[in-house]
Amino acid sequence: DVKVTQSSRYLVKRTGEKVFLECVQDMDHENMFWYRQDPGLGLRLIYFSYDVKMKEKGDIPEGYSVSREKKERFSLILESASTNQTSMYLCASSPRRDRGYEQYFGPGTRLTVT
Amino acid sequence: QKEVEQDPGPLSVPEGAIVSLNCTYSNSAFQYFMWYRQYSRKGPELLMYTYSSGNKEDGRFTAQVDKSSKYISLFIRDSQPSDSATYLCAPVMFSGGYNKLIFGAGTRLAVHP
């Protein structure tokens, strides 16, 4: 079974703080993704990576950055957290670039910025 | 207009009912059509997917795509309380060398005993 784990289930941060969300997958998947999920809006893609040290912007990258130093780990960074970044953050991985549609998700991190 | 529209529900049915969950989409370039199930306070889990038009069956679940009308359906037979969850459709676009999932907002389903 694919296992995607995220460092925290719940996180509360203050406006202006730098926030790190960590994601680890144990299935040697090439691709990793970060989404945020908000009521009525569905999942929106923030960043993705198809290889180590590689990153691509998704639909809503503003205010975020990512890091992928190892194949199994993909980090999302909020440089200066703002209240509009309060959301559920979901990490996903998929086996290969040509199977990028087959995505497996972690349990999510519910981030509240006050 | 959103690329993928999905009725948010909630849809409440008795145990044993046949459930129909639907999405419409606007982009004819979509080729794969994914269905995810998300339990409360959990991440989405891949349920099944189809390629292009037609039906695909997996146990009590059937996914159907009608590309001519841009309509995606998921049918659940003999629904169980354990099927209570939010169901997300996600057509796939091939863009810039990558597969990109375009998620609907999800339909919340409640199956009561």
Q: Give the number of helices of chain B.
A: 0
**Range of helix content of chain A:** under 10%
**Whole-angstrom Rg of chain B:** 14 Å
The number of E-state strands of chain A comes to 11
Q: Largest interface by residue count?
A: A-B, 26 and 25 residues
Cα shape of chain B? globular
Largest sheet of chain A: 7 strands, mixed
Structural class of chain A: mainly beta
Mean of pLDDT of chain A: 94
**Would you identify the regions of chain A where 5 or more consecutive residues have pLDDT less than 50?**
none
> Which percent range describes the beta-strand content of chain A?
over 45%
List keywords for this structure.
heterodimer; A: 114 residues; mainly beta; 4-stranded antiparallel β-sheet; 11 strands; 0% helix; B: 113 residues; 6-stranded mixed β-sheet; 58% strand; globular
Tell me what the structure shows.
The complex is a heterodimer of chains A (about 110) and B (about 110). By secondary structure, chain A is mostly beta strands. Chain A has strands spanning about 5, 10-15, 20-25, 30-40, 40-50, 55, 65-70, 75-80, 85-95, 105, 110-114. In chain A, the strands form two sheets. In chain A, strands 2, 4, 5, 6, 9, 10 and 11 form a seven-stranded mixed β-sheet that branches. In chain A, strands 1-3-8-7 form a four-stranded antiparallel β-sheet, with no helix packed on it. In chain A, a hairpin with a 6-residue loop joins strand 5 (about 40-50) and strand 6 (about 55). In chain B, about 0% of the residues lie in helices and about 60% in strands. Chain B starts with a strand and ends with a strand. In chain B, the strands form two sheets. In chain B, strands 2, 4, 5, 9, 10 and 11 form a six-stranded mixed β-sheet that branches. By secondary structure, chain B is mainly β.
